[in-house]
Amino acid sequence: MPALRNCPAAVMTQATRIAIIGGGPAGLMAAEVLSQAGVAVDLHDAMPSVGRKFLLAGVGGMNITHAEDYATFVSRYRQRAEQLRPQLDALGPAALREWIHGLGIDTFVGSSGRVFPTDMKAAPLLRAWLKRLRDSGVQIHTRQRWLGWSEDGQLRIAGTEGESRLKPSATLLALGGGSWARLGSDGAWVPLLQARGVAIAPLQPANCGFEVTGWSQHLVDKFAGAPLKTVSLALSGETPRRGEFVLTATGIEGSLVYALSADIRERINATGSATLLLDLLPDRSQAQIAGALARPRGSQSMAKHLHRQLKLDGAKAALLRELTAAETFQAPQALAAAIKALPIPLVRPRPLDEAISSAGGVPFEALDKNLMLRQLPGVFCAGEMLDWEAPTGGYLLTACFSTGRAAAEGMLRWLKRR
Q1: What pTM was computed for the model?
Q2: CA–CA dist 51, 299 (Å, integer)
C-alpha cells in the first residue's frame, strides 16, 4: 500500500511521542499518518480491544463509504458540510476506497451507491490495518481509560495496574460520541473538556428511533418488530422520502426513520413534538385508493376489503386502524386520505445510548484549522466527538477517517513549528 499522499514531510524524531486516546477509525487513521511521518505513537483505548464500534458497524454488511456525486456526498453533512469539506477533499470516498484496496481488501458499489468490502465484513479489514500499524511501530495499549489531566498538565491514564501519567509531545482525542457505551463511546470525555473551559454542544441521539405517547397493547403484542415496506414518510411541510421502517414497542425506527432523524429531533426540540405523515401506498394516488374503497364489499369485513382491493394488511393495516378514527373507515374519501397521509405523532427520540451515532460534541469553532483546541494547545480532536452528524450510508465512517487524517497532519504542522 502506498503511503497516504500529501502528508507533511517526516520531520520528527523518535524523541517526539504522540498520545492518541481512542482506538476507533479516527484514532487509527491518525496513528497511521503519524507513524508514516516517523513519529512514535502510543494509542490508548479503554476497551479490551480497539475498533469495537467499527466491527459492530460491519455486522450487517460493512458500508465503508458512498459512491454518489461528490457535491451531494458533502451535502449530507448538513450544517457542518463546509467545515468538513477540507478534510473530505483530502480523504473522500474515492481516496478512501484506494486506501482500503491498499490493505488488500477489494470493494464494490451496491445498487444504492453504498460501498462495501467484497466480503461485506469489517474484521478482515481491521486485522490487516492493525498489522500494518503494529509493523510501523504504533504501540496499542488496551484497557487504558483516560481520566483527564493532572494539575501539572500530564495525561492521567487508568490501567489494570493503576494510574499512570504521561507527558506526550501532543495529544489526539478521538473518543467517539455518546452512543453505544458498551463499545467505548460513552461521552465520559465531555465533563473533562468542560472543566478545561472547552464549550461542548450537548450530545444528542442521531440515526435513532423515536417514541410515540403509547401504542395499544394489541399493536405491541402483534406487530412490534414488524417492518413496513414500500412506504414514504415526511415531516409536515417537507418532501416525502421513500423506503421502509419498523414498528417497535415504543414507536418507530429503521432506515427511513434514521434518514429523517436529525429533522425530527430538531422539530421536537423546537416544538415539543413532531408529526410524520406516512403514505402507506405511495404507488397509488388518493383518487385510485378512494375508487377501490368505494367498490361494494357486501358482507366482507373491512379488513378483507382492504386486503382485496388494496393489498393492505398486516402491520400496515394494523397501524392504519391504530391511528384512524373508527368512523373514517365508513367514508372511502376520508379513509383514502388517511392511507396517503397517516399522521404519526412522535414525542421524543430513543435514549442516546441506543442511537447509531450522536450529534453534538466539540464545536469546530473551538478548534483551529489544525483541529487543535484553542483552549488547550497541543490537544487535537477528531472523529465523532466533533460536532457534526450525517446519515448512515458510509458518511459516518468517511468523516471519522478523514478527520483522523486531518488532525494527524495538523499535529505534524504544529510540532514542526515548535
Answers
A1: 0.91
A2: 60
